[in-house]
């Protein structure tokens, strides 16, 4: 436990004992000969008294010295003790949001009983929904990305320098062999695509990094060439950027700190910038968006030009379109579904468009079947059942939310997951259909693009005419009943002249 936390706990205990004795700060100061301002600094966790002064305080309060200096808090404040010792306070990136950890400690010591009750309540909610510290880390990272429109010039420039230092053509995606050569020859890696086959429990992982001499990168043999290039590019990002604290597996099996989450993000961003040159992507997308009509074949040809998976390409667009094509109101979604199960799980999202996005760790609701991503996954599963192949399915749609009239232009692509047989995935890039979008995207009003009214989940939806409902609207019904009770109560009060 850090010295800050020791001071905070001592200050809380001193205040607790003082208030139990009914002493004001002035009264305790008179009994000890210490100034009220000095005692205030102690209670706020800003100062820690000497042993002699602790003895004075203990005698004045009628408690044992050891009891006063003990780091154990009583039942009223035990939640604070656990919080102060937890990795959340130690690792959470308060500084990214302009808050220093000592500011948090100051808030806690200012009102410890209220803070303890709040932390206990949050803990109960977290326990109920199986929330862990890493969920908060990832939420903090998403918020940080959204604050910066998901664009980080220092990582873009690092990738550009890396390409220039090797004399590669920035307009051409680096070849897989070139990426492997830098890892093995410059950084001394051993690349192995056979070792993972002996571990069936790890077949869902893309790679495993072994921190040894020499370092080893174990690759899943079933990776698509584009996925393998991304894994190698990310590994180069760790090396080139000097990122030490990192995940050993992709995807991470365990998360130990926010620094790990942040470094994993940086390495992945580097890989995307390395494989898909910023200037070329912006130029290609700018030209594509000037087409008068939507052209799915042209978009797929553009995707093929970058030798990337749909997820890699869509996510790269989420990094560049807000800043360079002035489309900040966008969102990125990834859904997975076991083919034919009718269950759709949101596995990744970035929301910069204020999309009404119901999600949660324990959400047992059904996403609206009119969502483009869900619609494509359903259609893709049907094609698989009919033996029509595994070719990716591309779709576009204008989606109007029933409750807000907010309209989004959505582009989505569904395909099978390479490492999880029987599971399909869809990635979606959606844009708020505002004046900026209309000025940039000429085909926004192409009459061939379907326009559908959608909602959040079936359980919350009041659309009676929907023929695709997967569950009854019981949450909407409950909310409507609650609203009627409120209205009836207001009428009752008004009848008796009450407000």
Describe this structure in words.
This protein has 499 residues and is an alpha+beta fold. It folds into three domains: 3-128, 434 Repressor (Amino-terminal Domain) (Orthogonal Bundle), CATH 1.10.260; 147-275, Arc Repressor Mutant, subunit A; 279-459, no CATH class. 49% of the residues lie in helices and 12% in strands. It has 20 helices and ten strands. It has helices spanning 3-21, 25-32, 36-43, 51-61, 65-69, 78-85, 87-91, 101-110, 112-128, 133-147, 153-165, 176-186, 225-241, 258-275, 278-288, 296-305, 310-324, 372-385, 435-440, 474-495, and strands spanning 190-192, 207-210, 216-219, 249-250, 330-338, 345-351, 393-401, 407-416, 423-432, 451-454. It has a six-stranded mixed beta sheet with strand order 6-5-9-8-7-10. It has a four-stranded mixed beta sheet with strand order 1-3-2-4, covered by helices on one side. α1 packs parallel to α8, α6 (78-85) packs across α9 (112-128) and α12 (176-186) packs parallel to α13 (225-241).
């Amino acid at each position: 436990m850090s010295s800050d936390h020791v001071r905070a706990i001592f200050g809380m205990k001193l205040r607790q004992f003082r208030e139990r004795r009914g002493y004001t700060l002035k009264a305790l100061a008179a009994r000890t000969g210490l100034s009220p301002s000095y005692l205030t600094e102690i209670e706020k966790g800003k100062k820690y008294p000497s042993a002699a002064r602790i003895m004075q305080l203990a005698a004045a309060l009628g408690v044992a010295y050891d009891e006063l200096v003990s780091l154990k808090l009583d039942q009223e404040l035990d939640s604070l003790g656990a919080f102060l010792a937890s990795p959340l306070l130690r690792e959470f990136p308060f500084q990214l949001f302009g808050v220093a950890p000592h500011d948090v400690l100051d808030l806690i010591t200012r009102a410890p009983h209220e803070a303890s009750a709040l932390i206990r309540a949050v803990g109960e909610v977290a326990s109920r929904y199986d929330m862990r510290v890493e969920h908060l880390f990832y939420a903090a990272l998403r918020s940080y990305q959204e604050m910066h429109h998901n664009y980080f010039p220092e990582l873009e420039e690092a990738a550009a320098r890396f390409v220039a230092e090797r004399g590669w053509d920035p307009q051409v995606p680096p070849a897989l062999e070139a990426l492997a050569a830098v890892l093995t020859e410059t950084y001394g890696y051993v690349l192995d695509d056979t070792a993972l086959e002996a571990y069936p429990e790890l077949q869902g992982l893309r790679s495993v990094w072994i921190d040894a001499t020499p370092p080893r990168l174990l690759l899943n043999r079933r990776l698509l060439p584009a996925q393998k290039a991304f894994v190698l590019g990310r590994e180069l990002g760790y090396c080139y950027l000097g990122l030490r604290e990192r995940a050993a597996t992709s995807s991470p099996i365990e998360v130990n700190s926010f620094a790990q989450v942040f470094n994993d993000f940086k390495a992945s961003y580097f890989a995307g910038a390395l494989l898909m040159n910023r200037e070329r992507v912006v130029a290609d997308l700018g030209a594509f968006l000037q087409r008068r009509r939507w052209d799915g074949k042209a978009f797929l040809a553009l995707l093929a030009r970058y030798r990337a998976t749909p997820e890699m390409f869509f996510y790269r667009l989420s990094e560049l379109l807000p800043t360079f094509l002035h489309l900040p109101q966008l969102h990125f979604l990834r859904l997975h579904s076991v083919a034919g199960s009718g269950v759709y799980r949101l596995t990744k999202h970035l929301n910069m468009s204020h999309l009404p996005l119901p999600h949660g760790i324990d959400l047992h609701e059904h996403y609206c079947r009119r969502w483009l991503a869900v619609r494509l996954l359903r259609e893709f599963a049907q094609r698989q059942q009919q033996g029509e192949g595994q070719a990716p399915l591309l779709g576009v749609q204008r989606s109007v939310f029933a409750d807000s009239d907010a309209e989004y232009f959505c582009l989505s692509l569904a395909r099978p997951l390479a490492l999880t047989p029987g599971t399909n995935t869809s990635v979606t890039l959606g844009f708020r259909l505002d004046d900026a979008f209309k000025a940039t995207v000429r085909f926004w009003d192409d009459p061939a693009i379907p326009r559908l009214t959608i909602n959040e989940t079936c359980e919350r939806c009041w659309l009676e005419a929907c023929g695709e409902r997967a569950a009854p609207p019981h949450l909407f019904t409950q909310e409507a009943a609650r609203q009627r009770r409120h209205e009836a109560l207001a009428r009752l009060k008004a009848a008796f002249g009450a407000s």
